[in-house]
Specification:
Order of helices and strands of chain A: HHEEEEHEHHEHEEEHEHEEEEH
Oligomer: heterodimer
Organism (chain A): Pteruthius melanotis
InterPro entries (chain A): RSP9
Largest sheet of chain A: 8 strands, mixed
Number of strands of chain B: 12
GO biological process, one term (chain A): motile cilium assembly
Number of helices of chain B: 14
Radius of gyration of chain A: 19 Å
Helix content of chain B: 25-40%
Number of domains of chain A: 2
Radius of gyration of chain B: 43 Å
GO cellular component, one term (chain A): axoneme
Shape of chain A: globular
Strand content of chain A: 15-25%
Strand order of the largest sheet of chain B: 4-3-2-1-12-11-10-9
Protein name (chain A): Radial spoke head protein 9 homolog
């Protein structure tokens, strides 16, 4: 969610019981603007927090002029001192998907790869490095996976200019109540995968400036999103069942929306059994 | 004459009035006016598709822009144009009046407003000074949990507070507590843990007995009918199944063990509270094997394997029981056993310890021995107190012979012993290398006012706080236990044997011709051998 809308948005996602303590909220209010100043970000998003056994990682993302460009990610253990994370590479992503269990809460904790993936461990030892994976790398990969899989925005909130860059749509007035309850009104805010597979007939109805992302309708498995009207029907809250802890909120007919992750950073692989 | 010139050819446009290269005079104003009129007529041409014309459209756009004066208009001009076009299609004159849309938001707001109404009956209570059932101070608890970042937003907390007050006014309640919130796919559950006043919970038992009586009557009727049927026709019936289901473990009495508290749920504050049925051990045993999301509707069926004996209300109750047993803790020493003698496993009664001295928050965070469970552990059987299920079958079985056989066939069930009531949580086992609990202070910056917070790792979403003499437990989550491995559903049991295997039924291979000959030869040799022996013996006798 936007850093500037934190005070208003946190009560809207508190339906799941997860939130921030007053101390953390105050700390974020002070440190996120400084982040924007130091790194010259145009927008700063508070992404959420991943709970480890001994500590919690608080994550923020910074966006440049093109909102769809790869985002810079930073983490902090106390909401005050932020460290930049390197972008995720494919090998790191593949390795992190095989790691199971909770995060420890210590960024320098090392996972022994030999147990998990012998090939990768062998490759690493050959190249002279130790066959371990640091928790920081796992953190990077997890954030990237979550953003790719379940980071969503409402339809029409972002427009693609003819030059290819993506901006916020200043003309976006919010989804209507009827639209807000449909999964097709929300898009994954990441590189589209299914868009080119649509038939010509479907593509004819699309508006290339606003429909340039994948919608949630065809997510596998079906039913992996829970849509609810909360707070007496004033907020639409979408919760992902694949990554438990990701909450998206939108107040219909207003410009307020955002998503945040409060969870343990583990994928819910039991989803097909639980539906 | 030269034909009409194309735009790329030199000489184009020279035959238009006013453009001839020989005219140095000012062009004819009449012609200019004509050109302007033509252009305007063209712009006013109505589109055959939409009934709009460009002239009016541009006029509207410019009006809108000049009225609103947005910044960087040239960048969003196309969007403005689209909006103006869309606005054209709204009907301004309609003989029918729009029906007022009753959005669900308004209904919910009605219900929330109804919570705030103070009933007149309450004033009488205050005057008489009866023992008021204790309404928990939900806002105070919410404040302490908020220090750790846990909890719902203040509005929802207050609505829940008022709903609990309504619940107490409606039901005969002795103690009441906000247990927590369980999320579901379509709706969520808000759960209140309640102890009814003595004598109130027995209504269900009575209906149970009545139910049994009617069942017995029906059985008699059924048997009478069967006898008549047998007299009329004696057809050979297929062999009756010898399968006897394992005896059912009886559920615990209301007020003890897993059914110590009664739970009321509602989907949203403002909606009526629904009482959950008591939980049976079979439901707990099955709930341990399945993992399903709650939908939010209490009557939804649970489709699973092993098949869950009940619907969502029962599954919810079973999960609540498991969570309470696994995660309800209090500072050690806050509760003590009612009788000194009852420190055995059977003891279920505890009371507050008046001499309790709360340890400082730092100590509560560092050592897990400062916390203890105050809810009894659930055994593998599904109850808190072990019971031998085959003992009850003495009354029902009529033939003693069958009973003895059954006992021999059944494996002897071992008596299960659980942990005693007030065990310290430091004895909780973790899963692999994950400890069962994580303790943290709410703030490191201001230690004198920090609160000790305990998070369960076995049931993510279960929290407890302690600050001085105040403590509480709460649950916010999806209602499932944590397991580092993926959930593997139970495999179906092996197919039942159709018949008992014995020598009379077992197939053997038919002997081949060589085997038969060999057998005959062997037999003859044996006979011949016996005769020889007989002859030898006769010889020897001589």
């Amino acid at each position: 969610m936007e850093a500037r809308s934190l005070p208003a948005a946190l009560p809207l996602v508190a339906g799941g019981g997860a939130g921030l303590s007053p101390e953390r909220r105050a700390a974020l209010g002070a440190s996120l603007p400084l982040l924007q100043r130091d790194y010259r970000f145009e927008r700063v998003w508070f992404w959420g927090c991943i709970e480890g056994l001994r500590g919690t990682y608080y994550i923020a993302e910074g966006l440049g002029p093109n909102r769809a460009a790869p985002r810079s990610r930073l983490y902090s253990l106390n909401c005050l001192d932020w460290s930049l994370l390197t972008p995720a590479t494919k090998e790191v992503l593949a390795l992190a998907e095989q790691l199971k269990g909770r995060f420890q809460g210590d960024p320098s904790f090392e996972y022994n790869l030999a147990e998990i993936n012998a090939e990768a461990a062998a490759r690493l030892t050959e190249s002279g490095k130790e066959p371990v994976m640091k928790e920081e790398a796992r953190l990077i990969a997890t954030i990237e996976l979550i953003d790719r899989a379940v980071g969503i925005v409402p339809r029409g909130a972002f427009v693609k200019t003819p030059l290819g860059s993506v901006h916020e749509n200043r003309h976006f007035e919010g989804l209507s109540l009827l639209e807000a309850k449909k999964l097709s009104s929300y898009f994954h805010f990441t590189e589209p995968v299914n868009l080119k597979n649509k038939t010509l007939l479907e593509k004819a109805d699309l508006d290339p400036s606003t429909d340039f992302l994948d919608s949630l309708e065809h997510d596998i498995p079906r039913g992996s999103w829970s849509i609810q009207l909360e707070k007496g029907g004033t907020v639409v809250v979408l919760r992902s069942l694949l990554w438990l802890g990701l909450t998206f909120y939108h107040v219909p007919m207003t410009k307020q929306f955002g998503y945040v992750y409060f969870g343990t950073g583990e994928k819910n692989l039991d989803l097909p059994f639980m539906l | 004459e030269h034909g009409p010139y194309q735009p790329h050819e030199p000489g184009y446009g020279l035959d238009h009035p006013g453009y001839s290269p020989y005219e140095d005079e000012i062009p004819d104003p009449q012609a200019r006016m004509l050109a302007v009129k033509n252009a305007k007529a063209y712009l006013l041409k109505t589109s055959t598709r939409s009934g709009l014309n460009l002239y009016d459209h541009f006029a509207n756009i410019l009006t809108k822009i000049l009225d609103e004066q947005p910044t960087n208009t040239v960048d969003i001009i196309e969007d403005i144009s689209k909006d103006v076009k869309c606005a054209q299609f709204r009907k301004k004159m309609d003989t029918l009046r729009d029906e007022h849309l009753i959005l669900p938001t308004f209904e919910a707001a009605e219900k929330c407003k109804a919570l705030f109404v103070k009933e007149s009956g309450e004033e009488e209570h205050e005057e008489l000074g009866e023992e008021m059932p204790s309404l928990p101070n939900v806002m105070e608890t919410a404040f302490y949990f908020e220090q750790a970042g846990i909890g719902l937003d203040k509005d929802e907390c207050y609505y829940i507070y008022l709903s609990l007050k309504n619940l107490i006014n409606v039901q005969p309640i002795q103690t009441c507590r906000f247990w927590g919130k369980i999320l579901g796919l379509e709706m969520n559950y808000i759960i209140a843990e309640v102890q009814l006043q003595e004598g109130e919970g027995e209504e269900e038992e009575e209906t149970g007995e009545e139910g049994e009586e009617t069942v017995a009557e029906e059985k008699e009727m059924g048997e009478a009918e069967e006898e008549e049927g047998e007299e009329k026709e004696k057809e050979p019936e297929p062999p009756k199944s010898t399968y006897k289901p394992p005896p059912e473990v009886p559920k615990e009495e209301n007020g003890t063990g897993t059914n110590k508290y009664i739970y009321f749920v509602c989907n949203e504050p403002g909606k009526p509270w629904v009482k959950l049925p008591p939980v049976t051990p079979a439901q707990i045993v099955c709930a341990r094997k399945i993992k399903k999301f709650f939908t939010g509707r209490l009557d939804a069926p649970i489709v699973s394997f092993p098949p869950f004996p009940g619907n969502e209300a029962n599954y919810l109750r079973a999960q609540i029981a498991r969570i309470s047993a696994g995660t309800h803790v209090s500072p050690t020493g806050f509760y003590q056993f009612a009788n000194e003698d009852e420190e055995e496993e059977e003891g279920d009664a505890y009371e507050e310890n008046p001499d309790f001295e709360p340890p400082p928050v730092a100590e509560m965070v560092e050592s897990l021995a400062t916390w203890a469970h105050h809810v009894k552990d659930i055994l593998k059987q599904g109850r808190c107190v072990w019971i031998n299920p085959s003992q009850k079958s003495d009354e029902n079985e009529e033939e003693e012979d069958e009973e003895e056989e059954d006992k021999e066939e059944e494996e002897e069930q071992e008596e299960e012993r659980g942990l005693p009531l007030l065990t310290l949580i430091s004895e909780d086992e973790g899963i692999k290398n994950i400890p069962a609990w994580t303790a943290q202070p709410s703030t490191n910056l201001i230690p004198q006012y920090s609160v000790a917070i305990l998070q369960s790792n076995r049931w993510p979403g279960a929290y407890a706080f302690a600050s001085g003499r105040k403590f509480d437990n709460i649950y916010f989550g999806w209602g499932h236990k944590y397991s580092p491995e993926s959930h593997t559903p139970a495999l179906p049991p092996r197919a039942q044997a159709e018949y008992p295997i014995g020598p009379g039924i077992t197939e053997t291979v038919d002997p081949t011709v060589e085997d038969e000959i060999a057998f005959k030869v062997a037999q003859e040799e044996a006979l011949a051998g016996e005769e020889e022996e007989g002859e030898e013996e006769e010889v020897e006798d001589d």
